[in-house]
Specification:
Layout lengths: L1 H21 L20 H6 L11 H8 L2 H18 L15 H14 L3 H6 L8 H14 L7 H7 L8 H14 L7 H7 L8 H14 L7 H7 L8 H14 L4 H10 L8 H14 L7 H7 L8 H15 L4 H10 L8 H13 L4 H10 L8 H15 L3 H6 L8 H15 L5 H5 L3 H9 L28 H6 L1 H9 L3
Helix pairs in contact: 21-23
């Protein structure tokens, strides 16, 4: 019996000593006091009661509900909403958003956004930006944007255009997109231009639309090294779906007879073509060209020469130019169609520019009917500079002494450089005592001209380069080129001869 009582006394003594140890309060001299042998699982509660005067600054995520009860949170929310309403900001969309604990914090956020250049109307466009912490969201995101090249003065404009960026994680979301753009050969100094132009890129997933659109373009023949310049010129195609936007447009243009390789070269230089709406713009414009007399088999040539034509308000432009050509140049609608086939850029030329070379020719005594024939045969006349035409005409009359009829038959004379082609070649002809037509000694390459001078006969005259969809580009004397060489670069020759990008 006595031994049992003795054991009970020992146990009670041990428990009493442990209670004394664990109820000791943390002091400045020993702020982390604990039992070296056994940790009390309830010690945290006791220490937290005496840790600091303002525990909410220490662990805001844990003590938010402890520091502010439901009543206090509701009161502060009402105060913040009243403050925002006083500024003219509508807080309705902030109803389900966690707001800061005090009005002062909200004042700092509003002030920070206003210093960036945002107005109350801008904030009302996307009031959720007020839920972003300055320390955790705004400052890190804006600092990173400034680091990659966006000027500090333009940060406000960036946030105005894409405020959702303030919610993004710099490491998880922003940095991978920037790295992806650099991997596409977008120059570092162009990053700010690309992102200012299309800031929504920062919200795209790498494995989504951006990757598939790039892969498809490379698949149809676009040079991978040209993707970067394309992004710089027109970054919006990175957000286009291949199946619903890019591929249908490519398929339609190919169906018109445009070779896929030429289309790829066009996209490399004019990526904005991808932004033309197929149903609303491209197809109606193609139908418009046909309705104005453009031959269907030449549609591809017209588009290859002037790709922008499929995205213009075409009907209005064509109607205006057709009326002008008929009224001022005496060219009928059929002749106007031939002009557009040879030089589709004419539909965008200013009418005052067109009139200047025409008036120059009329002033030289050429009948209006002949001037009309010259323009239909060589539409490039209407884009020539009058000063250069005057010099060429003076040389033609004073040095060559040829009849005006030759100019009417070969209006292309005015499109050649006087100093680099007309004078040197004419002097070579004079030295050899050869007299030929303008077409014979001007409308050929330097190599062919030398061959003609060394020949024992004058070959028959032929037309210049011709374009036939579905076949090869045939040049005068092309029969001397071997089939292997000709077939190897058909598309490249076709592109160089017919597309002026």
């Amino acid at each position: 019996m006595s031994s049992t009582l003795l054991k009970r006394r020992k146990l009670s003594t041990i428990f009493a000593n442990q209670c004394i140890l664990f109820t000791k309060i943390k002091t400045p001299q020993n702020p982390c006091f604990q039992n070296p042998r056994i940790q009390n699982p309830f010690r945290v509660l006791r220490v937290s009661q005496f840790s600091t005067k303002f525990p909410e600054y220490e662990m805001p995520s844990v003590t938010w509900g402890v520091v502010q009860g439901k009543k206090e949170k509701l009161v502060n929310r009402v105060k913040i909403c009243d403050y925002l309403k006083g500024l003219g900001i509508i807080p309705d969309e902030l109803e389900n958003l966690e707001l800061p604990s005090t009005v002062e914090v909200m004042e700092q956020r509003v002030s920070f956004l206003q210093k960036l250049g945002l107005t109350v109307d801008d904030i009302n466009e996307y009031p959720l930006m007020l839920g972003c912490s300055m320390r955790k969201n705004m400052i890190p995101v804006l600092s990173y944007l400034e680091k990659i090249g966006i000027q500090k003065s333009k940060l406000g404009e960036f946030v105005k255009n894409y405020p959702q960026a303030l919610h993004a994680s710099v490491v998880v979301e922003l940095m991978p997109v920037v790295k992806f753009l650099r991997g596409l050969d977008v120059e570092k100094q162009d990053l700010d231009y690309v992102l200012m132009k299309y800031p929504e890129l920062l919200g795209f997933k790498l494995e989504g639309t951006m990757s598939t659109s790039v892969a498809y373009l490379v698949c149809i023949g676009v040079n991978p090294r040209d993707i970067g310049p394309m992004v710089t010129q027109y970054p919006y195609f990175l957000g286009m779906r291949v199946g619903t936007m890019i591929k249908p447009l490519v398929d339609y243009l190919v169906s018109l007879g445009l070779p896929i390789k030429i289309l790829a070269r066009m996209l490399e230089k004019r990526a904005y073509i991808l932004g033309y709406d197929l149903e609303e713009t491209v197809k109606p414009n193609v139908d418009c060209l046909v309705s104005f007399g453009i031959q269907r088999e030449l549609l591809a040539l017209v588009i290859a020469q002037y790709p922008t034509i499929i995205g213009l308000p075409l009907k209005a432009k064509m109607s205006s130019q057709q009326y002008f050509f008929n009224l001022k140049l005496k060219i009928d609608p059929e002749g106007f169609a031939r002009v557009v086939e040879k030089m589709p850029q004419v539909i965008s030329l200013n009418q005052h520019v067109i009139l200047k070379p025409v008036e120059f020719l009329l002033g030289r005594g050429i009948p209006s009917g002949d001037v009309a024939k010259m323009v239909v045969k060589c539409p490039q006349l209407v884009a020539c500079r009058v000063e250069l035409m005057k010099n060429s005409y003076y040389f033609f009359k004073s040095q060559m002494g040829r009849p005006m009829k030759e100019l009417v038959e070969f209006p292309e004379y005015f499109t050649y450089s006087l100093e680099s082609r007309i004078k040197p070649r004419y002097e070579r002809l004079q030295s050899k005592g050869i007299r030929s037509s303008l077409n014979w000694f001007l409308n050929c390459s330097d190599q062919r001209f030398e061959e003609r001078l060394q020949g024992d006969y004058i070959e028959s005259e032929s037309l210049g380069p011709s374009f036939c969809m579905g076949g090869k580009l045939e040049l005068p004397g092309s029969e001397i080129v071997s089939d292997e060489e000709d077939e190897s670069d058909d598309d490249e020759v076709l592109y160089k001869r017919t597309v002026s990008l």
